[in-house]
Amino acid sequence: MDFLTILQVLDSSVRLATPLLLACLAGLFSERAGVIDIGLEGKMLVAAFFSAAIAYMSGSVWVGLLAGIASSVALALIHGLASITFRGNQLISGVAINFLAAGVTVLVAQHWFEQGGRTPSLTGDGRFESVTLPLAETLRNVPVLGPIYYELISGQFLLVYIAVLVVPLTWWVLYRTRFGLRLRAVGENPAAVDTAGISVTRLRYMAVIICGVLCGLAGAYLATALQAGFVKDMTAGRGFIALAALIFAKWKPWPAMWTCLLFGVLQAVALRYQNIEIGNFVIPVQFMDALPYILTVVILAGLVGRAIPPLAGGEPYTKER
Amino acid sequence: MAASNTQPPAIELRGISKAFGPVQANKDISISVRPGSIHGIIGENGAGKSTLMSILYGFYKADKGEVWINGTKTDIPDSQAAIASGIGMVFQHFKLVENFTVLENIVLGAEDGGLLRPSLAKARGELEHLAKEYELNVDPDAVTENLSVGHQQRVEILKALYRQAQILILDEPTGVLTPSEADQLFRILDRLRSEGKTIVLITHKLREIMEYTDTVSVMRRGEMTATVKTAETNPEHLAELMVGRKVLLRVDKTPAQPGKPILEVEKLRVVDGNGVERVKGIDLTVRAGEIVGIAGVAGNGQSELLEVLGGMRPGEGTVRLNGKELPLTGSGSDGRARRAVHIAHVPEDRHREALIMNFSAWENAVFGYHHDARWTSGPFIKNAAILEEAHQMMGRFDVRPPNPRLAAKSFSGGNQQKIVLAREIERNPDLLMIGQPTRGVDIGAIEFIHQQIVALRDQGKAILLVSVELEEILSLADRVAVMFDGHIMGERDAAATDERELGLLMAGVTGEDAA
C-alpha cells in the first residue's frame, strides 16, 4: 500500500466520518443536558430528505440545507415536548421519531417525485461542491506535506470543515461558558440547577434544539454532499453508530472526533477493499461492511472500560415531594 | 435584643396553605421570625416542615397565603425570586453537582456574564473572604463528590452566602453528620447569627432545638400547633405538642441479663463489588438477652456487616450462630438459609430491601417466609390463610390502618416498619438484626418499635442493632460497638459511656488519643 493510497483511504474516512461526528456532537449536547436521544437517526433521515427535496425544487443547496435543519429541529422539538414538557419516556419518544422519519421521508418522496421513494439526482447548485483550498495546486508537488494538503486537507466539502470546527466550539461552549456550565449541571443534577434559580426546562429545550441543528447538518451532508440526492433509509444506522461513538468518547468532544474518525476509517476500508485475501482465506465483503456495526456492538457491550453517563440522563425532572 | 423589637420580622408567613392532591401538607400556617435569631421548626416526618420551607424558597407554590420578608410583602414564584429576596436554603439532600468542583457549584446560577473564567476568579476571591469570616474552609478546587458530607454541607452554606443570603434555612442539617461535625455546624450558625443573619432550623431532634434555638415552632399534621421561646419550654412538652399526646422519651428497660453467646463473629472481612474493603476484620459477640448497638457515621461498614450476616453479600472470616459455623460464600449463605437458622433481619433500607412497595401489606407480611408449609400447598399460595394471619399481625403490632389489602406504599414510614418488624419478630428468631429501626419513623411509632425490641430482648433473644442515631443507640443498646472505616474502634457499656466518648470513636479517635 503506497502513500497515495493511504491518503485516499484517509480522505474517504474523513468524508464518511463527518456525518457521524455531527450526529455524535448533536447527541452530546442533548445527553449532557440529561435528555437521552436515540432519535438521532430519524432526525438525520428527515434532514437528508428535506434538504435534497428542497434543494432539487429550489435549485439551491443552501435553501435545501435550511429546510433540512428546520425539519430536524421540528423532530427535536417533538422529542423535547414528549420528554421535557410531558415527562415521557425518552427512549420510546426516540424510537417513535425514528419510525416516523423512516415512514414520512419515503411517503413524501413518493408523493412529490414518484421515483420509488427517492429524490431526483441533484446537480449543479443543488449540491455541495468540494472546496479547493488556496495554493492546493501549487503545493501539490511538495514532498509528503504537499499530497497531504492536496489529497486530504483540501478538496473536502464545506460541511466537513464546519464539522471539524464544531468540535473545538463544543469544547469551548461546554467548559468555558456559563451556558456550558449550566448544561453540564442539568444533565448531572437538575435539582441543583432548579434550586439555583435556573429553569431546567429552558436549558433542556436549548440543548435539544442544538441537537436538532447538528443532526440537520449531518443529514443534509449525506444527501447533498456525500451523495447527490436522497434514497430510502440512507442514514443506514449512522445515528446509532454516533450514539455508540458518544459512549466510547465518554460524552467529551475531542474523543468524539477521534472515535468518529475511527468509524470513518473502518467504513472507508470496507468500501475500498471489498474482498481481502489473506493466504488462501478470503475475508468476505459482507464482513468488512459489517465491521463498523460489530465495533458498535463491542463498544456498547462495555468492553472499552467504564463509561459513566451524565447522572440524570433519561430521567424527566420533577420536583420531589 | 431590645432594639430588635422595633425591626420588622425577617420572615413572616400569613395563612400559608398547600395541598398535594388530597393531602393537605400545610394548613393555614402563620409564623414570624425575628431577624438575627435561630428559629427552630420541629415536627414529625410528614408534618409539613419541609413543604413550608420549600414554599418560602420558591420550590413549591402555596395555594393560599402571603410571605413577608423584612416587612415587605414578597411574591416568591421561583427560587430565583427567593434568592433575590436574600433567602438561602440548605436542603436535606444536597443540591450539588457531584462531579463539579466546589467553585463551579458555588458559581452555578450566580455567574457574572456569559464567560466562565471571570466568574470563577471572582468567586475564588469571595470564597477566601467568606472562609475567613465564618471559618468555612473548603478547598475551592476539590471535586464535590470527594468531599466529606460535612464539607459538602459547607459548600451549600457557602452557596447561600455567596448569593448574599440574609436568611438561611437548613432542613435536617445534622442527619448525616458526626457529632463533632454537627458541633462545628452549630458554631458556624452561631457565628452567622452574631453577624445578623436569620436562621431557620428544621429538625426532628429535640436536643438541637433545646440547645441552639431562640424560638421554636411545632408542626403536627400540616398545622402549626405552637410557637414558643425555647427557654420557656422543655423536651417533654415539645414532644407532646408534636405527637398530640404524652410520649415516653426514654426507653423503659431493666438491666440486661445476658446469657450464652448466640452470634460470634471473628475476623470478618467484606470486600464490595468495586474491590474496596468495607469491613476490615472485625470481632463481635452478641449474647442471648442483650442488645448490642453498632454506632457509627453511615458508610463505615455497618451496612455491609448486616448484609453479610443477613446473607445478602459474601464475606470472609468466621461467623457462628449458637456455636454452629455459617457459610459466608456459596450455597447456604443466602438470605433463605439465614432465615432457616433463625436469623431475622430488618434491613436498613426499608423501601428497597424490606418491602415491595407496590405489593399489598399481606403479601409483604410473609415475604422471605412464603416457602413455609403454612403458606403454600404445592405450587399454590394459600392467600386466605396469609390474609388472615397478616390481619392479626397488624393488630398485634398496631399497624394503622389495619387493612392488609392496602399497598405497602400507602402506609406511613412508621407503619411500614411495623409490618416488617412484625414479619421478622413473629418467626421467633434467635437473633434479630435490625438496621436503622426508626429511620423515617415518627415519634409515636418509635416508642412502640423500641418497646418491641426490648420485649424481644427480655424473652432472651439476641439483638444486633445498627443505627446512625446516637441517641437511639444509647437509649436502646446494652453494649455499644463503634465502627469507623471498617474497624470496630471500641466497645463500651451503654450505661457507662456518653455521646462525647462515642462521638470521638465515630470520628476514628481511639480512647488513648482522646485522653
UniProtKB/TrEMBL annotation, chain A:
Source organism, top-level taxon: Bacteria
Keyword terms of this UniProt record: Cell membrane, Membrane, Transmembrane, Transmembrane helix
InterPro entries the UniProt entry points to: ABC_transp_permease
Main location: membrane
Transmembrane parts of this sequence: 12-30, 65-84, 91-113, 148-174, 205-224, 256-273, 293-312
Protein localization: Cell membrane
UniProt keyword Ion transport, yes or no: no
Membrane topology type: Multi-pass membrane protein
One Pfam family, short name: BPD_transp_2
Residues of the signal peptide: none
Keyword Cell membrane: yes
PANTHER family on file: GUANOSINE ABC TRANSPORTER PERMEASE PROTEIN NUPQ, SUGAR ABC TRANSPORTER INTEGRAL MEMBRANE PROTEIN-RELATED
Protein known as: ABC transporter permease
Native species: Ruegeria spongiae
From TrEMBL, chain B:
Protein origin, superkingdom: Bacteria
Molecular function, one GO term: ATP binding
ABC transporter domain span: 11-246, 263-510
Keyword Nucleotide-binding carried by entry: yes
Keyword vocabulary terms for this entry: ATP-binding, Nucleotide-binding
Name of the featured protein: ABC transporter ATP-binding protein
